[in-house]
Design goal:
The protein contains 3 helices and 18 strands. By secondary structure, the chain is mainly β. It has 2 domains: about 100 residues, no CATH class; about 150 residues, no CATH class. Strands 3-2-5-6-7-18-1-4 form an 8-stranded antiparallel sheet. An 8-stranded antiparallel sheet has the order 13-12-15-16-17-8-9-14. The protein starts with a helix and ends with a strand. About 5% of the residues have low confidence.
Length: about 300
């Protein structure tokens, strides 16, 4: 019996060896089919609870997801390295970063693409100026605003409204210097009142009225420029009219449509209202691009 078992073991040994070799070959082949990319970002905003970031490589066959991740309050990514199909990665011409809803039932990229870059060898430098994102570096933004309440009859509340215009020439003139945005994006003005950002409305044209006036007075429409009088319908915790002296004024770039009542991460212009502000006096907005716009790099490994 022992002799028979020994003979059987000797016969089976080559089969075990061949099977093991086949398994190793399969694993090597699978590894050859995968490559990885590593991500590195600056100023990438923390993820909202109902959103995740998703990377995409762009090939002649269309976008291919490289995986989703979140960003914590300290700017740390939940994952920085992702496995990608080697053949598709070799074909990739560009990398794009999008913001996706949670849950996400659509396999395609969302319309909120915030960064992009073309591969040069194994590296892609990412910025908002890529054609898939905002398409502009916003290097030459600027503007002015005044405090005034043109939608009320009283002059006692003039420091409770903000308008992006210059009235000094007799006929009001637009003051915001902002590039045209691609489809799917809009500008939005904000007054940060006692720490709470309150919208002044979204707009795409700097010399036309914005799309809403939820807090303005009832004595007719305001001038045909972006702006708002904060004189009625105050949000919870605030009281209107108010005094914007010492507060902050912001112009942000928002996805359109926008499902969040808070400002988006892109804030190209910020202005600090002087503590001794006077009405109908122009005050400068300053570029906030370097502080609020993200950038990054993707490496093929």
């Amino acid at each position: 019996m022992k002799t028979k078992l020994k003979m059987i073991a000797m016969l089976l040994a080559p089969l075990v060896f061949l099977t093991a070799c086949d398994k190793d070959d399969d694993e090597d082949e699978n590894m050859d089919m995968q490559k990885s990319i590593s991500l590195n970002f600056n100023n990438l905003a923390p993820s909202a609870d109902d959103e995740k970031y998703e990377g995409w490589i762009i090939t002649n066959e269309g976008p291919v997801s490289t995986g989703k991740f979140t960003v914590d309050a300290d700017g740390n990514l939940s994952q920085t390295t992702f496995d990608v199909d080697a053949e598709k990665l070799d074909m990739a011409t560009d990398f794009v970063l999008s913001v996706e809803p949670v849950p996400d039932n659509d396999p395609a990229p969302s319309s909120i693409k915030i960064l992009g870059g073309a591969f040069s060898g194994s590296e892609a430098q990412l910025s908002v100026s890529h054609g898939a994102a905002l398409g502009n570096d916003f290097a030459n933004v600027g503007g002015e605003y005044i405090l005034a309440t043109p939608t009320t009859e009283t002059t006692d509340d003039e420091l409770s409204g903000i308008w992006f215009l210059d009235p000094s020439g007799g006929s009001p003139m637009a003051t915001l210097e902002l590039p045209e945005l691609p489809s799917g994006w809009a500008y939005e003005g904000w007054a940060v009142v006692d720490g709470t950002p309150v919208t002044s409305g979204t707009f795409t044209m700097v010399d036309e009225a914005d799309n809403s006036a939820p807090y303005s007075g009832s004595d007719g429409s305001g001038p045909p420029f972006p702006g708002e009088d904060y004189v009625m319908n105050a949000p919870s915790g605030l009281s209107f009219p108010t005094d914007l002296s010492g507060m902050t004024v912001v112009v942000s770039i928002e996805p359109s449509p926008d499902n969040s009542p808070k400002p988006f991460a892109f804030k190209p212009l910020v202005g600090m209202v002087p503590g001794d502000a006077t009405d109908h006096q122009t005050y400068d907005m300053m570029s906030n691009v370097d502080a609020s716009f993200p950038s990054g790099m993707v490496m093929k490994e």
